[in-house]
Specification:
The longest helix has 19 residues. The chain is built from 13 helices and nine strands. It has a seven-stranded mixed beta sheet, sandwiched between helices. A two-stranded antiparallel sheet has the order 6-7. By secondary structure, it is an alpha/beta fold. It is 42% helix and 13% strand. Strand 2, helix 4 and strand 3 form a beta-alpha-beta unit. The protein has one domain: Vaccinia Virus protein VP39 (Rossmann fold, 3-Layer(aba) Sandwich), CATH 3.40.50. It binds S-adenosylmethionine. The site of S-adenosylmethionine has 21 residues, from helix 3 and strand 2.
Length: 303
């Protein structure tokens, strides 16, 4: 605590930067993070010295390389990386995580890579005692929340950390709606002992990466996360993925949470099936972008 009684935010992006410096230029072109975000990931791992790290969302392998470099002198530390796709979506002729294989062969002895499915399919094999999670997947609700709910039972509940990328990057669609809300929902709703962020890489915008510390309370107060599955989804979840998640939720959570989980899927299918009529779309558009005109028309038509 600092003297005022307000807890001082620790800036992990400043911690042991010299560890990342030598590989920075090799990694940067393939990493989908900004500068402070990369140093934040490096710094928090150097500070926490985790032993069993799970990375979900690999792409070219920029994040994997940063993590492997950060743990190379930590005895017994291992990285388990999972990507939904066999091939990197940015370099479709190369496997997900190719950067590690191409440029960081010497770090591969601590690396286990799983490709070609949602993380829920690999968790029983990866096993428990995960004490650090790097989560960076779809960004469209409900994906990050689903990913996290599946992974949480496999995490140590005393002082494990989750790093979540893209908590403030939102995309505006032509219809005036905003998407990429998934990471912000999870970061806001999760019950955690503390939440930390680096100095933002974006001039006037908030930091786009954050980390939170997990405890037994995270599991105990996970109802919020289940409730958030009822917020309209921005992306579809294939039924086969939902089924593999369901097995984990049924096994590790309370029956009433499992029930909510099972209800969310048909509810979202029902919502997606309700096609907005032209008139209701026009009403939403006017109300959002031309509220004066909307209310004038409404009163005139009613009057
Ligand atoms: C934003 S990229 C990850 C970037 C990477 N973390 C980095 O720092 O360079 C998102 C990746 O998540 C993967 N992905 C999406 N859904 C996933 C899921 N359910 N389980 C595992 N990986 C997933 C995608 O295939 C994609 O490669």
């Amino acid at each position: 605590m600092c003297e005022s009684g307000v807890r001082k935010m620790i800036h992990y992006e400043e911690f042991e930067r010299e560890r990342l410096d030598p590989i920075y230029d090799t990694v940067a072109p393939y990493s989908e993070m900004k500068k402070n975000e990369r140093y934040f990931l490096n710094g928090i791992i150097r500070a926490m010295k985790p032993k069993k790290i799970l990375e979900v969302g690999v792409s070219s392998g920029g994040g994997s390389a940063i993590i492997l470099n950060a743990i190379r002198d930590i005895d017994g530390a291992e990285l388990y990386s999972v990507d939904y796709t066999e091939k990197s979506y940015r370099y479709p002729d190369k496997p997900s995580g190719f950067l590690v294989e191409e440029k960081f062969q010497a770090l591969m002895d601590k690396w286990h890579i799983f490709r070609g499915g949602d993380v829920s399919r690999f968790l029983e094999e990866i096993g428990g005692d995960i004490d650090f999670l790097m989560l960076d997947t779809v960004h469209a609700h409900p994906w990050e929340t689903l990913n996290f709910l599946c992974i949480l039972p496999f995490m140590k509940k005393d002082s494990s950390w989750t790093v979540l990328h893209d908590i403030s990057i939102f995309a505006y669609l032509q219809n005036g709606r905003i998407n990429s809300l998934a990471c912000r929902y999870l970061f806001t709703d999760v019950a955690a002992e503390e939440k930390v962020k680096p100095v933002s890489d974006y001039d006037n915008n908030p930091a786009n990466i954050g980390a939170f510390r997990i405890s037994e309370a995270t599991m105990k107060y996970s109802d919020n996360l289940f409730e958030s599955l009822l917020i309209p989804w921005e992306a579809e979840v294939p039924e086969s993925d939902y089924d593999s998640m369901k097995k984990i939720i049924e096994k590790y959570y309370k029956p009433e949470q499992y029930k909510l989980f099972c209800e969310a899927f048909p509810f979202q299918q029902y919502l997606m099936g309700r096609k907005a009529s032209f008139v209701s779309s026009l009403k939403v558009f006017l109300k959002t972008w031309q509220p004066k005109l909307f209310y004038w028309l409404k009163h005139s038509l009613q009057g």
